# Entry
Amino acid sequence: MTATGLKKAGHFTETHLSAESALAALKTGTWDVVLTDMRMPGMDGLQFLKEIKSQNSDIAVMLITAHGSVDTAIEAMRLGAMDFILKPFDMEQLKIRLERVEEARKLRREVTTLRKQLGSSVQMIATAPSMLLLLDRVKKVAASDAAVLILGESGTGKECIAHYLYKESQQWSKNFVARNCAAIPETIFESEMFGHKKGSFTGADRDRKGAFAEADGGTLFLDEIGDLNYVSQTKLLRAIQERVIRPVGSDKDIPVNFRLVCATNKNLLEACKTKEFRDDLYYRLATVTLTIPPLRDRRDDIVPLARHFVRMLSNGARTLTPKAEELLTQYDWPGNVRELRSVIEQSVIFSIGNEIEPSELNLNLKSPSGQPESTSLSLSDAERRHILHVLQTVNGNKTEAARLLEVARSTLVLKLKAYGTD
# Structure
């Protein structure tokens, strides 16, 4: 009767009298959902569920059970069943439950796809020998569970290296949880890191997981670790050292297992000497140290990175002229890769044509005398670029462009004819 009702509802169904027969069919066909009774001759529902999941974890399993076997059904959910329905049930109930199962399957597929996309988006642009050596070192340490400390100036890409390490590690299928230590006030540090129990303080209206619990089985990335105050360092040390946490308001320790990756732009060894940073914590964090060179020390990477940002930020609509690329390599980039991206983003927004010229790069270059270098842009060229940019922003509407430029429309038309761009 159930199969007949589902067929009438538009589902393609196939009926089997035993789990063994159904398993053979699952090997030869593509199925979305298995609806099975808990009690059957031969293999029971739980064993059937285990066999299905060992063959294809994407198939959703929905169990039919009697009132007396609810505990068994809950155990089945723990083993991977998507849902269960109690006898007796009507067809409308079943249809609704199947719709929910299909929605859950769709959401799970979307999450899986998103994780793959996030994984593939970790793209490291590197041609400089120092960066290639660093990436090779990252791949080697990724195979271990060693704690990693990433050092480098602000803007060098420490979080990118952390993501790359995560992608290359065995924990890639697990969580990546990131926290910026500099942004966490001391008053909520324990709650943010270790979680809290409902009612443990004013405003704690529910239980909350902290960063360590969220990262259990995966990677915990603590950025700006050097900005932690001494009290917070002490609290952190126990969790890292003993692999246990105690949520605020709880009297029980919770074991956690995680891969620890930290980053800072500070010199922690110097901070240890001045007692600003605990040396016992430092040695827990720095089992392996990765140092990212500043962009000025790997100039071979400037142009490849710039080209990458131009393609990404313009959807492939812009390129850099050779002179613009040469100009980029002459700059020291005190803000490193972050500054390079910012400069490229501005040039993509304000450039007129398909090629980005040197004059469209907002760089504060200085000559050997200390004076800003001339961009060799004439007043006429500057005027032309400004007019064309305004026209572009109003989609070619000359009347609106003239209003913004505060000139007569006829004057604008004459200038465009003179530029040969009418």
